[in-house]
Nuclear architecture-related protein 1
Amino acid sequence: MSAILSADDLNDFISPGVACIKPVETLPAAPPKDNPYEVILEDKAPQTLTPAQISLTDCLACSGCVTSAEAVLVSLQSHNEVLANLAAPSSKDKKFIALVSPQTRASLAVTYGVTEKQVGWMIEQLLCGSEGIRTATLESEENGQSKIRGFDLVLDTNIAEEIALHYAAEELLASLSQPAGEGISKKKPILTSACPGFVCYLESTQPALIPHLSTLKSPQAILGTAVKTLLQPESGPSGVYVVGIMPCFDKKLEGARGELTSAAWGPTTDEAPVRDVDCVITTRELISLAQSLNLDFSTLPRKPLTQQAPASDAVLSLLSRPGRVPLTDHTAGTSGGYLTHIVARLIEQTPGAQLRVEKGRNVDTVDYVVFRPPSADGEQEEVIARLARCYGFRNIQNLVRRLKPAKTRVLPRFGKAQAAIAARKAKTAAGAAGSVGSEYAYVEVMACPGGCTNGGGQVKFNDEIALPMSSESTQNQKEWVARVDEAYYSAGEEEEEGRNGGVRGGVNGVRGERVEAFVKAWEGRTGIEKEKLLFTGYRQVENDLGKTQEVDVVARAAELAMKAGGGW
C-alpha cells in the first residue's frame, strides 16, 4: 500500500453530534403578492421562519446521515440517562422495571467467572438490593445532590421468548395450511423480525422484502408492552419506566420505533406516545453504570434477594415467574431458537415427518428440511417445508439477492429478435427468483455472525471496561464467544436440574397452553386484542439522498435574488 494512502485514511465514520449534518435551511417569508410594486424596508422585512422540529426517530428515518444519526440515538440511550431518571424528583411516583436478556447474563458469567444463575442474582442485587445503586447519589446541575432509587423488579426476557416462539410457530403453521391464492397471507419465506438491525436494513435498502417480515414483536417488545399495560394501569404507561439490558446496540433502535409505543395499542389521546421500552443499555453499559457509582460488580452478593416487589395478583405474577427452560442443544443457536422450535412443532403436527439437516457454506448457514420419506408403494419423498438459518451480514446479502425480484432492463432492445430474447430472459429470471423465494417457508435471520451472544454490546475478550478475570486463557474473540455460548447453553442445564427432575414441558420448553392462558388473561385485563399486544408493522424508509428533485426555476431565481449580494 502506498505511504500516502493508509488504512487510517479509509475511515468514513462521522463523529456523532446532536446537530444534524443536513440542517433545514430557512428563507425569509415571501412578501405578500397583493402589490408586486410594494417596497419593504429592511427593518420591516418578514422574520425568518422557525425551523421545523424533527424528532430523533424521524431523523433516523431520513437515511441521509445514517452513521451520525444512529450514533446520536445510541448515545441518548445510555446508563447516564437511566441514572438521571432514577435520581429525578418524579422517580418516586414511578415503577422502574429492568428486562435482562439471557445473552447478557452469559457474557457477564464468563467475564466474572461465575454461573449464569449467579450473574442473574448479582444483577438483581445491583439494581434492587441494598448493596447496589440504592446506596449511591447523583449530582446534577438541575437537582443538585440526589439519592438514586433502585429498581422495583428485574424480569427475564425468556418469559416473553416463550410467547414469541409459540406465536412464531403458529404464524408459520397458518401460512403452510392456507391454500395458495386464498386471502391475504404472508409472503414466503417468512423472515424473523426479532433482529432490529436486519429490520432496519430491509426498511431502508430492501423495501421489496418488507412483506416477508414476520409481524410478531421481539421478546423485548412483547415484555415491554406487557409491563406497560399490566403493572401500572391506574397512572398509565408513563407511570412505568422500562429499561432493557441487551447484547446489541440495535436494540436501542428497536426501542425508539414509533410502532412500539402506546399509540399502537392504547386509546387515541392528545398526549405524546410513551415507548414500550423507555431506554435500552447494553451489557457493557451495565458495567459502566456500576463503575460510575464506584460499585464493583464482581463483589456483589451471589445470592437471590430476600424479596422483590410482589405482584398484586395471579395474572401479574406470571410476569415474574421463571421463563422457559433454555435449550441445551447447540443446534438451537444463541438467538432464542426460533428455527428449531418451529421445526419441532412442524414435526409434532405432521405424522410420519422426519428431519434432514443440510449444512451451508459456513457455520452461520444451515437448512432444515422436514419431509416424509418414500413409501413402500413407490411414492417419492415429499418435502413438507424447507427452513433455514442465516446469521451475519455477508450471508444476509446472499439471502437478499436470492429473494429480490429480478430487475427489468431499462434500455430497450432494437429489433424483434432482440426484444424476444430479452423477454425470455426476463421471464426466466423472474421465474428463478420466484422459485428460490418459495423454496423456503421460514428463515431465522440475525445480523451478528454467530448469533446474539456475539452482539456489539457484549463484553469482548480484551475489554478494558471489565478486565475479565477469566480472559487470560482466551487468545482471541472467537474463543471468547465460544465460552459465552457455553455459558448460554449451561443455563438450560442448571434450570433443568431444578425443575421436575429435568423433565422439560411442552415443545422445546415452550408450553402452548400456558402461553395461550396468559395472553387470554392479558387481553381480559387490558381490553386490548392480542393483535395489538403481540404484533407490529414495518414501513419503507424513504431516502431522497442523491435523487433529482424538480425545481421551479422562477422560485429558485427569487430565492437566489433574496440572498446577500443578490445571489449572482
In short: The first strand starts at residue 95 and ends at 100.
